[in-house]
Design brief:
The protein is α+β, with helices and mostly antiparallel strands and 467 residues long. The protein has a domain of 213 residues: Chloramphenicol Acetyltransferase (2-Layer Sandwich). The strands form three sheets. A seven-stranded mixed sheet has the order 4-5-6-1-14-13-7, sandwiched between helices. The chain has a seven-stranded mixed sheet with strand order 8-11-10-12-15-16-9, sandwiched between helices. The protein contains 14 helices and 16 strands. The chain is globular.
Amino acid sequence: MPDRLSALDASFLSQEDATTPRHVGGVAVFERAGRFDYEQLLCLIGQRLGYLPRYRQRVLAVPGHLARPVWVDDVDFDLTYHVRRSALPSPGSDEQLFDLVARLMARPMDHDRPLWEAYFVEGLAGDRVALITKTHQAVVDGSGTVELGQLILDTEPQLCEPYEDIWTPRRLPSATQLVLDALGETTQRPAELVENARAALGDVVAAADRLAGSVGGVASKVRSLLRPTPAGPLNAPLSGGRVFAVVRSELDDFRRIRAVHGGTVNDIVLAAVTGALREWLVSRGVAVTGASTVRAMVPMAVLEPGTARFSTAGLVNNEIEAHVVDLPVGEPNPVLRLQHLSHAMRAHTDPGRSVAARAMLKVGGFAPATMHSLAVRAAGTDPGRLVNLVITNSPGPQEWLYAGQARMTEMYPVLPLTRNQALAIGVTSYHGNVYFGLNGDRKAVWDVGNLATMVEDSLEELKGAHR
């Protein structure tokens, strides 16, 4: 049987264009140590690709679009094409790194090759290096395939020794075989014709509805609201450019705020973003009243009904539910904003199915990279009309992690933008810090750096607030 793309994955591919590339990214910063260089990174990734067969496969279309495309081995696979070397003018600044991130994330990937890329960036000040990764939404399903960052990071320094690559690609199916397989499946399942047509047209919502509960072990459930989506500058046609900014904060600050005002760390993340969006909208000249809101999609990990516990084996038996939350940007009091959000999030959470952060931290490697990818899959069912932006938050390990012999010191998620949504925010905690990655459209959210500063100010406001 052919390894056919799901209707959801086919939709992610077909709806992609020059202004809306559908890959999830990550930026990891490392302290260079020992022999960790580009060759060591190639060795490390090449040695472990056997655990991720999808990373050596590409998408092959079926003649006449009689069926969804299939995954096939890339007979011309070249690791050095996917793992690339780059450098900043030494000593490179963080601002230069994040400008490079924005430029790389704006570029769609070649659909005739495996849908992932990694960039080894040298020249950072302080003898640091960075790893920028891009993985298409169609690749990471959380069941058979995880994100590259989860695979290459270890809890102890490693030195990659020379290895023998014994991988042999399978022969490509002929056009005749692809057509015969498609006709055979259509005969057995006549509804496949409708599903294929929807996928070919990029009807991601219809595809997701049909596959909810069975897409690669991850169900994406979008809870539509009857109220209209708040209008504002966050919903705008996208250009081909991107801007990227970050926020570094301490996890202890979130814990102190929680101890005084209650809620969860995720509630405080949302409150900090809400306060920042309030100030940003005012700076843009938008009239903000007491009733003003910004609608966010907030994907969260939950257990399938009847599942005893969160699974750490490939993240199976778990769901990512995409909840729609109105952020109260019209509320001037930071404590009341937090309380409002805590109440709203409790309304979305089933205590019997919610996944505690401590359970997610048991997943091997740097699981947030995979969890952000899965969250984006869930959020990807929104056609750009239901919400103003997407916010994901995934807790990470609190011990040091290493790529080869280099210790990772920072990690920022980079979420893709969907049509008419000009901002996406990913948040990850790691080794006592909380890292925000703000990805924006270069024309619509050109001042994303100001917004990042406002997130910092909003956190300070919460820290200084009293009951």
